[in-house]
Write a structure and sequence with these properties.
Radius of gyration: 21 Å
Helix content: 25-40%
Bound molecules: pyridoxal-5'-phosphate
Shape: globular
CATH topology of the largest domain: Aspartate Aminotransferase, domain 2
CATH superfamily of the largest domain: Type I PLP-dependent aspartate aminotransferase-like (Major domain)
Largest sheet: 8 strands, mixed
Distance between the termini: 54 Å
Amino acid sequence: MSDYIRRNILDMPGYVPGEQPKKGEAVKMNTNENPYRASESVYDAIRRVADEGLSRYPNAVGEAFREAASRVYGLPADWFLCGNGSDDILTILTRAFVPEGGLLRLAYPSYILYRSLAQIQGAASEEVLFNADWSLPGYFGAPPEPESAFHLRPVPGTKLGLVYLPVPNSPSGTVIPKEQILAFAESLPCPLLIDEAYADFADGNCIDLVRKSSKIMISRTLSKAYSLAGLRFGFLIARPETVTELIKVKDSYNCDALSIAAAAAAIGDQAWRAENRRKILATRAVLTQRMRALGFTVPDSQTNFTWNVHPDKSVSHKAIYEYLKAHGYLVRYMVYPGWEKVAGRDDGLRITVGTDGQTEECLDLIEKFLS
Ligand SMILES: *Cc1c(COP(=O)(O)O)cnc(C)c1O
């Protein structure tokens, strides 16, 4: 059968998501899920829709969610496109904007799924290295640029279809200044997607840039800040003329009736979100302080996780990950080949903010390991 599969699929390694242990097997601090239960209104909405039966197709564009989002963000409902997780949104965008044999630009290290999406599309990814302080060089927006700037560099002259930029970024948790993002968009020959998966935990967001520049789009997810990773719901904010075209690309019913109703309820409960954010940010401060006290370099995080690198190379990040795992705590051990030429080390630990108790216990274990 593999004779018939497209070459680019055979050649790609495939995106590997973080480990999902069986329930109760480990404390999950590895995939940036929220440790708290979602707004009760979400479960009520799911029960209500289930009670009505599920024999009918859902609204094809998730109108109930678009209307709820419109009230929250002060933009018309037709500026929103619903997705089966924001990964679905990213897939739709890649299919719509990146030609086969074309090019997708991204910052490195960031979300590795972007590269997989390019590979599925039969396109190349051009990966611009962050600076050591997680700022981005100006040529992220406007080539030409030095060869040393790249982690990956395909054949020059390939058509650039789309640029992905997560703000805040994963794994660093850091943000790029808004003025610089706008300048990138203005100098780019293609659209710019700002992946705001973590913006609910940040000090600001880029939603107003969608009005300022016709090249800017924003993706959001309910997986992190709304405690709904299991629901699979994300959305795009873009100009209505763009949304109209993207609707042609998506699966006809990409979001189901349960998730549309649940997502509308979730986004409608902004009081829940604000309170959850307050808790996560307080715990994040403890996580950051204690990791720094243990000697790790930890950038100020604008997300629900921190990026922890020990400057002493004799301290093995992998050994810490394995020790924590053996003690029932799962964090994310990340390796970014090539990053060492900028940062000195190519790996590190990405730790999701848990409840206060989970976070303290994880920190106690790390402290014990190091002593
Ligand atoms: C978690 C994450 C997503 C995906 O979110 P889903 O809605 O669960 O698909 C997208 N981008 C980044 C940077 C993420 O970390």
